[in-house]
Design brief:
By secondary structure, this protein is an alpha/beta fold. It has 9 helices and 8 strands. The protein has a single domain (about 15-275), classed as Dihydropteroate synthase-like (TIM Barrel, Alpha-Beta Barrel). The protein has an 8-stranded parallel β-barrel, surrounded by 5 helices.
Length: about 280
């Protein structure tokens, strides 16, 4: 479904697939699988590109519910060998971080996307780091922080409240010299939301098109899928993830962030061909 509202050109065709590479010991879905395994992590990133990923999003700090913060120095230690190993591969890299020191390190190593779950609110220096670069910035909504975000999340109406927050952050970026053409928005499925909130967001996703930014949706293997399908383990939520992602694409999502690239790419191909008349 083509979006009739103008959105900035990202330099590649959308909808796009962002493949997830967690290099943490404690992420909710694949915790420890790629932690301290540089060669394995690099090979997995390259494999995801071959399977159809347009961007690889590398996370060195878990932001699962209840997780504790990781110091930027530890993030950088985890990221360094991966970024060095991928730098010559000419692939689009995103780093998932809310710390300005980590952002600067990543940008100095050729990263083109910064994915900030705090929407540049966690670290006062982050805005200046992004301003001085030419990278894309992903502004994600989160109520609270990872350690407390799932303790009774509350909204008047989740989609509208999140829309207002993102609109405010977009204006703050523009005021600080970050052009709107570099901003991608993410309503933050699962970050300080109940299953009901997550469903409301997806059902009202077209609302966010009015912000005229590219929209990223990250719902891969998340708990609300279990609540809808009764599949408890994250690895058993792949089919539900595909269904929810295709629904999000119908509602105007431009980037889907996924663990299972091969399946997401096949589903996207079929979906795109069915759109043609």
């Amino acid at each position: 479904m083509k979006n009739s509202l103008f959105k900035p050109n990202l330099g590649f065709k959308t909808p796009a697939i962002m493949g997830i590479l967690n290099i943490t010991p404690d992420s909710f879905s694949d915790g420890g699988k790629y932690f301290s395994k540089t060669g394995y992590s690099i090979n997995h990133a390259l494999k995801m590109i071959k399977m159809g990923a347009d961007i690889i999003d590398i996370g060195a700090e878990s932001t699962r519910p209840g997780s504790k913060p990781v110091k930027p120095q530890e993030e950088i230690k985890r990221l360094k060998p991966i970024l060095i190993g991928l730098k010559r591969k000419k692939i689009r890299i995103s780093v998932d971080t809310r710390n300005s020191l980590t952002m600067k390190f990543a940008l100095d190593h050729g990263v083109k996307f910064i994915n900030d779950v705090s929407a540049l609110t966690n670290d006062d220096e982050s805005v200046n780091i992004i301003k001085k670069s030419k990278c894309f910035i992903i502004l994600m909504h989160m109520q609270g922080n990872p350690s407390n975000m799932q303790k009774n999340p509350n909204y008047k109406f989740a989609p509208r409240d999140i829309y207002n927050f993102l609109n405010k952050q977009i204006h703050n970026c523009k005021k600080n010299g970050i052009t709107k053409s570099r901003i991608i928005i993410d309503p933050g499925i699962g970050f300080g939301k109940t299953s009901r909130h997550n469903i409301q967001i997806l059902q009202n996703l077209k609302m966010f098109q009015k912000l005229r930014c590219n929209i990223l949706i990250g719902l891969s293997r998340k708990r609300f899928i279990s609540d809808l399908s009764k599949k408890e383990k994250p690895v058993d939520r792949i089919a539900g993830t595909i269904a929810a992602n295709q629904y999000a694409l119908d509602q105007g999502a431009d980037i889907i962030r996924v663990h299972d690239v091969k399946e997401a790419f096949q589903a996207k191909q079929v979906w795109q061909k069915l759109q043609k008349k």
